Amino acid sequence: MQYHVKDLSLADVGRDRIEWAEKDMPVLRSIRERFSREKPFQGMRIGACLHVTTETANLVLTLKEGGAEVFLAASNPLSTQDDVAAALVKYFGIHVFAVKGEDTQTYYSHLRAVIESRPNIVIDDGADLISTIHKEYPSLAEEILGGMEETTTGVIRLKAMARDKVLRFPIIAVNDAYTKHMFDNRYGTGQSTIDAILRATNRLLAGSYFVVAGYGWCGKGVAQRARGMGAIVVVTEVDPIKALEARMDGFLVMPMREAAKIGDFFVTVTGNTSVIREEHIRLMKDGAIISNSGHFNVEIDIQALERLSKSKRRIREYVEEYTLEDGRRIYLLAEGRLVNLAAAEGHPASVMDMSFANQALSAEYILKNHSNLQKDVYKVPDEIDRQVAMLKLKAMGIQIDELTPDQIRYLSSWEHGT
Length: 418
Prior knowledge:
It comes from Thermocrinis minervae. InterPro entries: Adenosylhomocyst_ase-like_sf, Adenosylhomocysteinase-like, Ado_hCys_hydrolase_NAD-bd, NAD(P)-bd_dom_sf, S-Ado-L-homoCys_hydrolase_CS. By secondary structure, the protein is of the alpha/beta class. The chain folds into two domains: 8-180 and 348-395, 3-Layer(aba) Sandwich (Rossmann fold), CATH 3.40.50.1480; 186-342, NAD(P)-binding Rossmann-like Domain (Rossmann fold). It contains 18 helices and 15 strands. The protein has helices at 11-22, 26-38, 54-65, 82-92, 104-115, 128-136, 138-141, 152-163, 178-201, 217-228, 240-248, 256-262, 278-281, 302-308, 339-342, 349-369, 382-395, 405-411; strands at residues 45-50, 69-74, 95-97, 121-124, 146-149, 171-173, 209-213, 232-236, 252-253, 265-268, 288-292, 309-316, 319-324, 329-333, 377-379. The strands form two sheets. Strands 9-8-7-10-11-14-13-12 form an eight-stranded mixed beta sheet, with helices on both faces. It has a seven-stranded parallel beta sheet with strand order 3-2-1-4-5-6-15, with helices on both faces. Strand 13 (319-324) and strand 14 (329-333) form a beta hairpin. The longest helix has 24 residues, at 178-201. It is globular. It starts with 10 loop residues before the first helix and ends in a 7-residue tail after the last helix.
């Protein structure tokens, strides 16, 4: 066994938590049962860079049941659940390289440990694993059949690589599956982000001004959940269509320079850099709480916050108090890293059930179809997306209608009019 985890004595707690999550992941369980019979990945190595959580554990165990040898690194220095990492090593034989709070050097050494296992298929969350392969292991890239990417941020990076003709193997953009982004991003990020802010601060949201930067699927989820807690929600956007949608959904919409003056809570979910900058920090009121739920810790200009501050202290776990020169205090959560995994447990298992079902089935698709795919970024095949949705409905005990033969003929004909 190759591994680097915090403490194997945590494994018993981790095993119980993995089992608890599995109870709420019936779609992935049904795929695991089939994989266990068919062993599609027999003799294959799968390298993954994902948040090491109870839900991820159930994905890698599904791949192992399918015959794969799995090597797993964390996709963010603060997202690892150390008890889960220990359980995967001690009880399930997964090669795990992840320690919560690891520094940047350790983070990349863990990625390299996964890469040096010479995986046949890779699964990424943010594209750090895939970009490191391309930068540091170009010859190994030629051996990889293909990979999957879990996040909006990662898909953006990989599409840029494909556009620049540097991508060396095909990628399935799991993030773009309807059963991923419409549910995981909206309901998962929405609930887990609010959960993390409440755990970190124990502050009341009702009646507060809650600023959401970005109105993609993640931003929609955060805004909806914050409104559900009684907050007055403000959305900031650069896309006129999304801004209009946010207004029609009943939210206040304004530039960040205006929102900065009134906000009590701020959450960035754009996938872009420097969303909250020095010019905005200078306008914030005493006690403003800022956080990020995007993948990388670049959305808040932390260096600007440091420059503007005369002192800094940790006042609560995951809460840093910055005192500005004029005495105003700004509170940064989870060091600006994705707050929902750093200060809480990430998405509920029931939504990750669909996301990771897409991952498992896309890995099987890569295995069977890699020779017919170009070095490009592909959407999840519609048949996989629909299969995941149908399996989820079945698990929920929900039945739906089917088209009648007459309806099928009607929809396929151009001859019927008024």
